[in-house]
Write a structure and sequence with these properties.
single chain; 174 residues; mainly beta; four-stranded antiparallel β-sheet; 0% helix; globular
Length: 174
């Protein structure tokens, strides 16, 4: 769930993207809906666009400038099963369950394309970006840390092996 400007953007696994008006928290109402065609796992928002990791259907880019009438603007297939998406600048980092990390150039949201890739054969369940690094929770291979200062050529910095990585958060001290 992502909240922005009085709306909650919620992925509905079998349905797609639901946009809920939460301006009155005591009475949330559905403002809009977009059926993605796949299995909507996660959503990230940047400007007027929702980026949906849509399972077997890859990454869907939905124009949400009118929350009542969301419209698909772009799409990029990713090998495997798109489970999560994180955004950084002109790039979407898509975590795939069966292939690895797909780095998509989204500088033109209507025409995204794969610009880089990092293979993890057992896939990725969660992703966090912080300070030029991407942290990946791999379901069977543990934590991977990649340097993404050059997004086209991600470089592994290190990894920590543990069983069944599902989710994570990065805590920063001020």
């Amino acid at each position: 769930i992502i909240t922005d400007n009085g709306y909650a953007y919620v992925t509905d696994w079998f349905g797609g993207l639901r946009i809920i008006d939460i301006s009155n928290p005591g009475n949330p109402t559905e403002a809009g809906f977009f059926e993605t065609g796949g299995y909507a796992y996660k959503v990230s928002i940047l400007d007027d666009y929702a980026y949906v990791a849509d399972g077997s259907e890859g990454l869907r880019i939905i124009d949400i400038s009118n929350p009542n009438l969301p419209v698909e603007l772009g799409y990029c297939d990713t090998v495997g099963w798109a489970k999560n998406v994180a955004l950084d600048g002109d790039y979407a980092y898509v975590a795939s369950k069966y292939s690895g990390l797909h780095i998509l150039d989204i500088s033109d949201p209507g025409n995204p394309y794969e610009a880089g890739f990092f293979a993890l054969e057992n896939g990725i369940s969660d992703i966090v970006i912080s300070d030029g690094l991407v942290y990946l929770a791999s379901e069977y291979e543990g934590l991977f840390i990649l340097d993404i200062t050059d997004p086209i050529n991600p470089m592994e910095v290190s990894n920590y092996d543990y069983s069944y990585g599902r989710g994570m958060a990065i805590a920063k001290s001020e």
